[in-house]
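User: Could you check the structure of this?
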Amino acid sequence: MATYNWGMIGTGVIANEMADALNRVNGSVYAVTALNQDKLRAFAAAKHVTKTYATAAELIADPKVDVVYIATPHTYHYAYIKRALNAGKHVFAEKAITVNAKQFDEVQQLAKDKGLILTEGLTLMHMPIYDQVKQLIAAGKLGDINMVQVNFGSLKDYDPKNRFFNKALAGGALLDIGGYATAFARTFLDEQPNVTLTTAKFFETGVDEQSGIILKNPRQQMAVMALSLRAKQPKRGVVSGTKGYVEINNYPRATEATVTYTADAHTTTTQTLTAGDSTQALDYEVRDMQRYIAAGHDDGQLAMSHDVSHIMDNVRNAWGMKFPFE
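Assistant: Sure, the predicted structure tokens are below.
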């Protein structure tokens, strides 16, 4: 497998995980930048990064950087993605890749025009178990898929100043954890939803604290999602068809799926599928990104991100919730 020079923007929790994955899979991390210079130096030393830059602009301008990895608050993604693509760099951005569909459509088109790979860091798009589940469904083992149910509840500390609840930083459950649930739902719907029914409870800062979302597409398939930042829920997804259903727990980094076959209303049989390693979730992302670059195409991952972005826009529009910068 070819290796590449990755330049990282951000040194937070997920960036630490990604640096470890890059060292394991790619062999090294070429460059990193962050606003806090003390944290930047400590990060570079701990992760054996070759170069540090005081600004993202300097990192992106380095002709040796092949891939720019973005792990900043959501509001900065759009500008960094544009700058990196315009500089001829491939981009891997953490979720949510952009804060709205308008931004997404612009960077998607820019990546296409430049002939570059742009990918969103949604782990479930890269976990091997999903290939097995998709093959099962494609073989007709679950019959016609009619319903998807998916939950994600995270109990964040009460802190109105935290980025999770900061409206100026595009906080809220939908953009923080909802991308996973939405991507799960869209993965198992045959078409993009055209009906959105939803209600939300808003945190005191004006962001969505929790929500219930129902989606329906032209084939009458439905998805039901429950999200929360102040109530823990199991990360559980269920895909139901006319011949059975599959349950996937801890679905963002899942390694197991339980299939229940319901040949009739009275008898059931079960099967367990296993694949992958949850501790290597970001390794799979790195391998896939580098494979996309080498192949010159992304296996439809950006198209999935497109649909997720537009679904989340429709949900926010139904709430009437806008961020201050929109």
